[in-house]
Write a structure and sequence with these properties.
This protein has a domain of 37 residues. It has 3 helices and no strands. The protein is mostly helical. It starts with a helix and ends with a helix.
Length: 68
């Protein structure tokens, strides 16, 4: 049961960190990566356009979020 609570707390902290980071962020035009930083696969151009400053492909981003 403690593992579930720890995971819930970790997820809540992650979401809080993301929200705080976004609120401090100055509007910019960050360029998205063409290749994933984790696996070096190409990032689809639609994702590059829709997610400003994206650094990873969808599968790798999901893995990053699952670890938090």
């Amino acid at each position: 049961m403690a593992d579930d609570i720890d995971r819930a707390n970790d997820q809540a902290q992650y979401l809080l960190d993301v929200a705080l980071h976004r609120s401090r962020r100055v509007p910019s035009t960050r360029v998205s990566a063409q290749f994933c930083e984790d696996c070096d696969d190409p990032i689809p151009s639609l994702r590059q356009q829709k997610i400003e400053g994206c650094e990873t492909c969808v599968p790798c981003q999901e893995l990053r979020e699952a670890r938090r």
